[in-house]
Design goal:
With about 475 residues, the chain is an alpha/beta fold. It has four domains: about 130 residues, Rossmann fold, CATH 3.40.50; about 160 residues, Rossmann fold (3-Layer(aba) Sandwich), CATH 3.40.50; about 70 residues, Helicase, Ruva Protein, domain 3; about 70 residues, no CATH class. It is built from 20 helices and 16 strands. A five-stranded parallel beta sheet has the order 2-1-3-4-5, with helices on both faces. A five-stranded parallel beta sheet has the order 7-10-13-6-14. A two-stranded antiparallel sheet has the order 8-9. Helix 3 packs parallel to helix 4, helix 13 crosses helix 15 and helix 18 packs across helix 19. The termini are far apart. The N terminus and C terminus are likely disordered.
């Protein structure tokens, strides 16, 4: 007599074009406590999954019309939360490898031993339970972390966060500098959140996004009838912010005529709406940001010097991502976790080869580019971890860290230690891990290269760990042993 499956039992769909085999496996799985059903073709299985979802699909590898490999591939694409176990009677690894590449989670060899099949199904259900728990934990963690949190632990970003903490509670006007995509608005929001104004509005505007007349109306407001479309009066952002924060992004793009009017507001702490006669008191704190060198713009008469000194009371620099390489994988996993939850994907990690490519790229678009890359990767990923196939082509073509030192921003310049690390890594990669060749390029002997690699970190040792033996002689004074890279 069949026992009722426990409430926690998984749902299994058996697929085999031999009716007797399908029924036999279904009955055996029912006796083992699983909620099991069966169909006799791949197309019938897909139709069933479209109506009633299963946790595990157990399919024969060789079937007419649609093979088990084709079914596994389709399930992976359409139903990424369903695991496939294939049953194969073929000898050798080739059909098994083909099935795994198609998306199968596991395989069982014919003749099927019920204990082996049960174990494979139980492992699959445990794997699904872990994935679902990770998704739940990610969602819970996302609720506790502010959506605009600054992520990272490198010395460069810690210096920025320290400046935020030191100046947040003051009313000083802050100028945030940094390349496009580094997260200047996140820093502005952190300033606001950590200040005594955190319960007041944070209003932001991009000064490069609109012409001077519209920008004036947005910032200062207007009265009814001030211009053709002014059918009602409207307060500007300075008044909408109340005692909160006004964030003027890309202030270096502000038209010169608007710079004069903004300077007066900052000096007088009063604002007059367009077309109005009465002034109102401004209580909001002003935070600005730019990716330009404002001092150069002042020298070129493109930005008012008096306004520059008004907004540059305290300057906070946000480092480029290439100056905080330690944070790349940390940020990548942070974005992966958030995006996988949003997309309801079971992606939980990054493969070692993909991680190496993320580290080897210099991210000219900074954190914004990294987030875009991870969004693409999570969307394309069909496995539980991101692989090289999921990354943009420009990353997979990258072979080593580029040495980007053409910058006038002190905060983005590298220390001698970091410069040495990156250059040694680049030489090792360019030499395909051949330490004798790398030593010749660096102008040192191989023993010195080993010492440098040990001193500069284990990642340099890994840069040559997968390479073939170097049979060439070592004119740089090697120790005579094989160079196995």
């Amino acid at each position: 007599m069949m026992t009722k499956p426990p409430a926690s039992a998984g749902t299994v769909l058996v697929v085999d074009d031999d009716v007797d085999t399908a029924e036999l496996l279904r009955a055996a799985l029912l006796k083992r406590g699983f909620d099991a059903r069966c169909v006799t073709s791949g197309h019938a299985a897909l139709d069933q999954l479209g109506r009633v979802m299963a946790d595990i699909v157990v399919t024969d590898l060789h079937m007419e019309a649609m093979s088990g490999i084709e079914l596994a591939e389709t399930i992976r694409r359409r139903y990424p939360d369903v695991l496939t176990i294939v049953i194969t009677g073929a000898l050798g690894l080739e059909p098994v490898v083909a099935a795994i590449r198609a998306g199968a989670y596991d395989y069982v060899i014919k003749p099927v031993k019920l204990d082996a099949l049960t174990l494979a199904v139980e492992r699959g259900l445990d794997h699904l339970a872990l994935k679902r728990e990770l998704i739940r934990l990610r969602a819970a963690a996302a609720k506790t972390r502010p959506p605009d949190a600054i992520v990272g632990s490198s010395p460069a970003i810690r210096g920025t966060l320290d400046m935020v903490a030191r100046v947040a509670t003051s009313d000083a006007t802050v100028l945030i500098t940094g390349e496009s995509g580094t997260g200047k608005e996140l820093v502005a929001r952190a300033l606001h959140r950590q200040s005594g104004r955190g319960d007041q509005p944070f209003v932001a505007i991009n000064c490069a996004a609109m012409p001077a007349p519209l920008l004036e109306s947005e910032l200062f407001g207007h009265v009814q009838g001030a211009f053709t479309d002014a059918k009602t009066s409207r307060p500007g952002l300075f008044l909408q912010a109340g005692r909160g924060t006004v964030f003027l992004d890309e202030i270096g793009e502000m038209p010169m005529e608007m710079q004069v009017k903004l300077l007066r507001v900052l000096q007088e702490r009063r604002v007059r709406p367009v077309g109005g006669d009465e002034e109102a008191v401004v209580e909001a704190r002003v935070v600005t940001a730019t990716n330009r060198d404002l001092e150069r713009q002042v020298a070129a008469k493109l930005f008012r010097e008096d306004l520059f000194y008004r907004i540059n009371v305290v300057q906070i620099h946000v480092p480029a991502l290439r100056a905080r390489a330690e944070d790349v994988l940390f940020l990548a996993h942070y974005f992966l976790s958030r995006l996988a939850t949003e997309m309801n994907k079971g992606v939980v990690g990054i493969s070692a080869s993909a991680a190496r490519k993320l580290l080897a790229y210099d991210w000219p678009g900074n954190v914004r580019e990294l987030e875009n890359c991870m969004e693409r990767a999570v969307a394309l990923c069909q496995l539980t971890e991101i692989t090289l196939d999921d990354l943009p082509p420009k990353l997979t073509r990258t072979s080593a860290h580029s040495l980007v030192i053409d910058t006038a921003v002190p905060g983005d310049l590298l220390t001698l230690e970091e410069l040495g690390t990156r250059y040694t890594r680049q030489v090792l990669a360019a030499s395909d891990g051949n330490k004798s060749a790398a030593a010749r390029i660096l102008g040192i002997d191989r023993r010195s290269l080993y010492r440098r690699m040990e001193t500069l970190g284990p990642d340099l040792l890994g840069a040559a760990s997968d390479c073939t033996t170097d049979a060439a002689s070592d004119p740089g004074g090697g120790d005579g042993s094989d160079d196995a890279g």
